[in-house]
Amino acid sequence: MYETHYHRPTSIDAAVKLVGEAGGEGKFLAGGMTLIPTMKQRLAAPSDLVDLRHIAELKGITVNGKSIRIGGGMTHAEIADHEGLKAACHGFAELAGLIGDIAVRHMGTIGGSVANYDPAADYPAALKALGATIQTNKREIAADDFFLGLFETALDEDEIVTAISFEAPDQCAYEKFRNPASRYAMCGVFVAKRGGEVKVGVTGASMSGAFRWTDGEQALSSNFDGSAVDGLSVDESDMLSDLHGTSAYRANLVKIITKRAVNKAKAAG
């Protein structure tokens, strides 16, 4: 690793100031699950690391009826174990418990994951399906406007994800087909139903990152049952194709995993 300067601010304002003073060479450090390995491989060499893990403003989970707010500094394990969240939106808590392994879940944070936007990350599918809002130190951004492309978001260089907020749906569930080695989603689907409207967020399958499967949403809004997507097809042209599976394989996975997520949501009530 190259030489770097480590900072441990206790406020968002102090963190932003430190990155600004680094002259474009500083990086925010949330959980470090991607940044630290990247630095070890010498693919990144920030002059300054500004650690966000000790900022109280980024902590906490608030559940007020169906309104949910999760601080950007909350770890995946804290989200998965939160009793209030499990009661209000069990599907989201369960998703957090499926991320990586136990070490990743206890170090990685939702704010860091969302800001990094790995194309196989779990949260983006849920945030799109839930119609979530990403709150930063500057503004609020709808999930559909936040995720732009692979590892690309609407965040500015000095912008920090401070919280995620959404309204819990009537029914929801997350299902993913894991790569057996990395545990990343080869296809992950979050289904959320509110009244007669269903949204379907998909991650891990597309070259463009997470997306909403609108054909599936229309079919499931008419009939909230896994069988509703049987006659549909998924466009292969934007699906990933690699040694783990062809584009046709992943397109088919979208249908299969969507059906599983719908059936899980129905079983949960």
From TrEMBL:
Superkingdom is Bacteria
User: Magnesium: present as a keyword of the record?
Assistant: no
InterPro entries per record: CO_DH_flav_C (IPR005107), CO_DH_flav_C_dom_sf (IPR036683), Diverse_Substr_Oxidored (IPR051312), FAD-bd_PCMH (IPR016166), FAD-bd_PCMH-like_sf (IPR036318), FAD-bd_PCMH_sub1 (IPR016167), FAD-bd_PCMH_sub2 (IPR016169), Mopterin_DH_FAD-bd (IPR002346)
TM stretches of this protein = none
| Domain annotation FAD-binding PCMH-type: ranges | 1-171
What Pfam families does UniProt report for this protein, alphabetically? FAD_binding_5
Q: Name one GO molecular function term.
A: FAD binding
Q: Do you know which SUPFAM superfamilies this protein is assigned to?
A: CO dehydrogenase flavoprotein C-terminal domain-like (SSF55447), FAD-binding/transporter-associated domain-like (SSF56176)
Keyword list (alphabetical) reads:
FAD, Flavoprotein, Oxidoreductase
Database matches in PANTHER family: XANTHINE DEHYDROGENASE SUBUNIT C-RELATED
- Under which name does UniProt file this protein? Xanthine dehydrogenase family protein subunit M
Q: Please give the organism.
A: Aurantimonas marianensis
